[in-house]
Amino acid sequence: MQDEAIPAKEAEFHSGFVAIVGRANVGKSTLLNCMLGRKVAIVSPRAQTTRNRIQGVKTTPRGQIILLDTPGVHDTSHGSKLHRYMARVAELSCRDVDLILFMVDVRGAPHAEDRALVRRLAKVRSPVMLALNKIDRIPKPEVLTAIDACRQLFNFCDIVPISALQGENVERLEALLLERLPVGPAYFPAETLTDQPERFLIGELIREQLMLNLHEELPHATAVIVEEMRDTPQGKLHIGATVLVEKESQKGIVIGKGGQMIKRIGELARKEIARFAGNDVYLDLWVKVKPNWSRSEVALRELGYTER
Ligand SMILES: Nc1nc2c(ncn2[C@@H]2O[C@H](COP(=O)(O)OP(=O)(O)OP(=O)(O)O)[C@@H](O)[C@H]2O)c(=O)[nH]1
Ligand SMILES: [Mg+2]
To answer: Which atom of ligand 1 has the smallest separation from the CA of 45?
Structure first.
């Protein structure tokens, strides 16, 4: 008699929402891009690069992780309305998620601001996993010291050292996230990568170049509106966009001597957009002064900095 083949029990599908939170510049957006294998969030060495909640969807045969990248948490006591909006986005993103992925920079962790943030996390009901990022920057023994120091802070469900930039240990992090998420359905089709419209992503790629090429506080006074997007008869993508600044003097700096700065920003952004769109791009950039836009409720709403 022949044995009947017993089908292996299919592994259960896990799914859910994970908010990535932490102070500015620790590498939250870098991790989102690394996990998705595609750039959906802009990255810069400056604090407070991300301004909106950006959703990325990672689907594997084992499950689906919906990752929410959030603005870095910062002190809002002196901030503009934009800053307060950013802080609120981070706070709201922690509600109603299945898991929080708290991220710190491993160097000197925990930082005083990490401690302050952890105290706020004590109120949330979902489990909190800790990612210690940038392990490529310090020797292993120091990573172990940081793990020990962070363990005293909070009852994290897991502590995972990673390098989001180099992808080190990110697969392990992904496996742990899936393990911690409940058994559930796929909320999005497998091919979904992000909820951000193309127009928003293109505006962000221009803003990324503003963050990378302008100095001091100036990037924080800029915003980008993509006004026009159309295919040309030559098969190019034609984009018309305006860079908003708050003062006439800032406009001069963004344009630069003989228009050099805006030309450089436009050229770099054009290449990034072409890579993203898989198409040749013609980019028409303008600079416009809108006094105190970052302090105006109406302007913020127009720019899409509104709670959803
Ligand atoms: N060496 C190293 N650098 C990293 C790593 N992850 C991120 N970075 C760098 O850290 C800087 C900040 O990265 P972001 O991903 O923009 O940080 P963020 O937490 O999203 O920052 P905000 O949006 O401002 O809150 C960038 O220059 C990244 O290239 C890492 O694992 N190793
Ligand atoms: Mg970011």
So the answer is: 27
